[in-house]
Specification:
110 residues, 59% helix
């Protein structure tokens, strides 16, 4: 990854965090969470919502910045899974932020 790619990724991640990160212990915007839950339907056809790893890694509980960084690496073709590249390239920054926010609120069932 070039320095310019790292810079773009860092700026995108920072922007996403600033848009939805809770300030002073406040919760994330409920509209962002609702939108993320709506969008997650496609994700959860493969990634288990309960955190089970059936050969496809769980994505629940990831910090927002991790989710966005991973999705950006797929979007830019730096990771080789064709299905994930296609999904990531179809999502804009608002959608990535909503998904990352939603998945960050979930935890594995005990």
């Amino acid at each position: 990854m070039s320095n310019g790619s790292y810079r773009r990724l860092a700026c995108s991640t920072l922007l996403a965090i600033m848009l939805v990160a809770p300030a002073s212990g406040q919760s994330a915007d409920p509209n962002v969470l609702e939108y993320g839950e709506y969008l997650a339907g496609e994700c959860t056809t493969c990634h288990q919502i309960d955190g089970t790893d059936n050969g496809i890694p769980p994505i629940i509980g990831w910090p927002l910045e991790t989710f966005i960084a991973v999705m950006m690496s797929y979007k830019q073709g730096e990771r080789g899974n064709q299905a994930m590249i296609s999904v990531a390239q179809s999502l804009d920054e608002d959608q990535l932020t909503a998904l990352g926010t939603y998945f960050s609120t979930l935890s594995p069932k005990q």
